[in-house]
Design a protein that fits this description.
There is one protein chain. The chain has 670 residues and is α/β, with parallel strands linked by helices. Among the domains are: 283 residues, Phosphoenolpyruvate-binding domains (TIM Barrel, Alpha-Beta Barrel); 113 residues, Glucose Permease (Domain IIA). It is 41% helix and 19% strand. It has an eight-stranded mixed sheet with strand order 1-8-7-3-4-5-6-2. An eight-stranded parallel barrel has the order 9-10-11-12-13-14-15-16, surrounded by seven helices. It has a seven-stranded antiparallel sheet with strand order 17-18-26-22-21-20-24. Strand 12, helix 14 and strand 13 form a beta-alpha-beta unit. Helix 1 runs antiparallel to helix 3, helix 3 packs across helix 4 and helix 17 crosses helix 18. The chain is globular and about 100 Å long. The relative contact order is 0.08. The C terminus is likely disordered. The chain binds phosphoenolpyruvate and magnesium ion. Magnesium ion (MG) binds next to helix 17. The site of phosphoenolpyruvate has 11 residues, from strand 10 and helix 17.
């Protein structure tokens, strides 16, 4: 029963049978006679079709389209017929016959000279490689939940196999900050790496136990240890469920949101206690297919996530392709330093059509939920300007097409030291910041997040990284926009404490960590309240800059007479209106002139202007929606005081401490 030392990328206990992803072994293939080869070809083709059809059931629209394209190739008589002939007449082995058939089909396709058809050729070759590997026994998918093992894995392999089939991951090459590790963390999958010569030590179906504390893996332990391991796995599952039940009821000032990579992961997130989706890594939609997903497929995925969140914020990041997130169909020229090359927003800016179709899909999905757009890898202000222009262009195109859409708020990821240094300028134009600590650590400390053996140099709690986070947070709050952290640091108990103490407004973590992080945030907030001698009740702050007007002097008897509750007026110096308390938005007037919040242990109404319900929304813009959690000082509404005056109304803002038991929506929307 050997135990090998490894390193931990994602902590946790996992046990199960190994499913070893073997390298392409077609080179070692020993062909039999033509009858045998023909039979192998037929078996592999039938198996391939069975898997494709089964996989389609659970696939999202993007995945289903890719699968359909592969089934089409399999059904093409030119393809399989030609392979059968090559086996019979030229006595080729089945893998070579498939390769040759693919090339012949490609030659025919190439004659058409059209770009689309050329792309189809790539599909045919890719598909043939898969079929050949299946014949040679190199491309398999597990039939039961397993420990996925391989010399090296890619993010695409994880999503293709499906996280529900993966109990744990073990690789030779890896790192805790790689995207495979991020994905594993996202799905709550324990991940060990660094096992030298893995394929010699671990064989298919070996029983493995990934040791959560000792950084080791047990291979084929005795029966008794296996029984213990299975029981422990069950206990962990039950404990997780219990923790989740406890956590979902806890209210924290810090919003606790989820990071997802596939639209279906949004299903049930509100019930699991997510205040929203803080990061939807849209690029995963782009990685597995033979071509980019269409606008329609993307729209389907984004809308699905937004609808599943039922009004809660759904922050969708524009594709962060490049570096280790490789899309085979996107021919990015070979780069010496891909992490410093064409990745993230740069890909979007270089491949405009691709970007525009993504933006159109996002704008369309925004009509069905509380979608926000987030852009990765921003380093310069002009990049944000270009994105905002592209969003405008996308909206004009949708207008022409007569589509239903909404322009969502746009925020930037703070992932480069450059973005931190220009944060005050970015905060003028962005509606929120989200700090990507994985990349911010990589670029601040100059340590490649994918590199092996660099763990001790790659510390997201390094003073330099924490100062960067504090600087960006300060810059955002100075402009009254919220700051989230969606990198791995947010899900780490010590990291969460540092971040809450710095004052970030949101932690966005893998769905598997939601409960633990919410419990932790509540603990930290309580101990901070004790340290400062204040309870969590923070008092009510003025919702706008301007001159205060005592209740008795408000020129409206409804307010001055205290009909709704105790109140105060503000003659606004500008049109920006901020949350007077941290809490949950309970009502947003349909006419956009009033928002009420439950926070500070009471119900607070912010009413912009007197009698402005009659303006029917003209001159108002609301930035929050019902059910959303906001932080004190966060921008919640905007109004145009000049326009309101010009229409003959008084733009005075009234903050009302609603009387106990008064929850008449009619009065509030006064
Ligand atoms: C990050 O860099 O912290 C982040 C959240 O983005 P990703 O890990 O997808 O690069
Ligand atoms: Mg990043």
């Amino acid at each position: 029963m050997p135990r090998y030392e490894c390193r931990t990328a994602q902590k946790g206990f996992a046990a199960g049978k190994a499913f070893v992803i073997r390298p392409d072994r077609t080179g070692e293939y020993r062909p039999g006679d033509p009858v045998e080869e023909a039979a192998r070809l037929e078996t592999a083709a039938t198996e391939m079709k069975r898997r494709l059809t089964a996989g389609k059931k659970d696939a999202d629209p993007a995945g289903a389209a890719v699968i359909d394209a592969e089934i089409l190739i399999l059904d093409d008589e030119n393809f399989l017929g030609s392979a059968r002939r090559a086996i019979r007449e030229e006595r080729l082995g089945a893998p070579d016959a498939v390769k040759q058939a693919a090339e012949k089909l490609c030659e025919k396709l190439m004659e058409s000279g059209q770009d689309y058809i050329r792309q189809r050729c790539e599909d045919v070759r890719g598909f043939a490689a898969g079929l050949t590997a299946l014949i040679a026994g190199g491309l398999e998918v597990p039939s039961e939940p397993c420990i996925l093992a391989g010399s090296e894995l890619s993010p695409g392999q994880i999503t293709m196999i499906g996280p529900e089939m993966i109990r744990g991951i073990l690789t030779e090459i890896g790192s805790p900050t790689s995207h495979v590790s991020v994905l594993a963390g996202n799905y709550g999958i324990p991940y060990l790496y660094g096992l030298e010569n893995l394929t010699e030590k671990v064989r298919q179906q070996d029983y493995l136990i990934l040791d959560p504390d000792g950084d080791g893996v047990w291979v084929n332990p005795p029966e008794e240890k296996i029984r213990e391991a299975e029981a422990r796995q069950e206990e962990i599952r039950e404990a997780r469920e219990k923790q989740q039940k406890q956590a979902t009821g806890k209210v924290t000032r810090t919003r606790i949101c989820a990071n997802i990579s596939r639209a279906e992961e949004a299903d049930g997130l509100p019930e699991k206690g997510a205040d929203g989706i803080g990061l939807f890594r849209s690029e995963l939609l782009f990685l597995n297919g033979a071509e980019a997903p269409s606008e329609e497929e993307q729209f389907g995925a984004y809308r699905h996530a937004a609808e599943a969140m039922a009004g809660r914020e759904t922050v969708i990041r524009t594709m962060d392709i490049g570096s280790d997130k490789h899309a085979a169909w996107l021919k990015i020229p070979e780069e010496i330093n891909p992490a410093l090359g064409l990745r993230g927003l740069r890909v979007s800016l270089e491949y405009r059509e691709l970007f525009r179709s993504q933006l159109r899909a996002m704008l369309r999905a925004a009509a069905y939920g509380n979608v926000r757009i987030m852009i990765p890898m921003v380093a310069s202000e002009w990049e944000l300007d270009e994105v905002l222009k592209e969003i405008q262009t996308a909206s004009e195109e949708l207008e022409r097409r007569g589509e239903k859409f909404r322009i969502p708020e746009t925020g930037v990821m703070i992932e480069t030291p450059a973005a931190v240094m220009i944060a005050p300028a970015l905060a003028e134009k962005a509606r929120f910041f989200s700090i990507g600590t994985n990349d911010l650590t990589q670029y601040t400390l100059a340590v490649d997040r994918e590199a092996r053996g660099m763990e001790r140099y790659s510390n997201p709690m390094h003073e330099a990284v924490l100062r960067m986070i504090a600087l960006a947070t300060e810059a955002a709050h100075a402009k009254h926009i919220p700051v989230a952290v969606c990198g791995e640091l947010a899900g780490n108990p010590e990291g969460a404490e540092q971040l809450i103490r710095i004052g970030v407004d949101e932690l966005s973590v893998s769905p598997a960590k939601l409960a633990a992080v919410r419990n932790r945030a509540a603990e930290i907030e309580d101990s901070m309240a004790q340290e400062t001698g204040k309870d969590r009740n923070e008092g009510i702050r003025s919702p706008a800059e301007g001159e205060l007007v005592p209740m008795a002097e408000i020129p409206d008897p409804v307010f001055s007479g205290g009909v709704m509750g105790e109140c105060v007026g503000v003659i606004p110096a500008n049109g920006k209106i901020y949350a007077p308390v941290s809490g949950t938005v309970t009502t947003v007037a349909a006419t956009g002139h009033a928002v009420s919040l439950r926070g500070n242990g009471e119900e607070i109404l912010v009413h912009a202007g007197l009698d402005t319900v009659r303006l029917k929304g003209e001159g108002f813009r609301v930035h929050v929606s019902e059910g959303e959690h906001v932080k004190q000082g966060q921008l919640i509404m905007e109004m145009d005081p000049e326009l309101i005056r010009a229409r003959g109304f008084n733009p005075m803002i009234i903050v009302v401490r609603m009387s106990q038991g008064d929850d008449s929506g009619e009065k509030r929307n006064n």
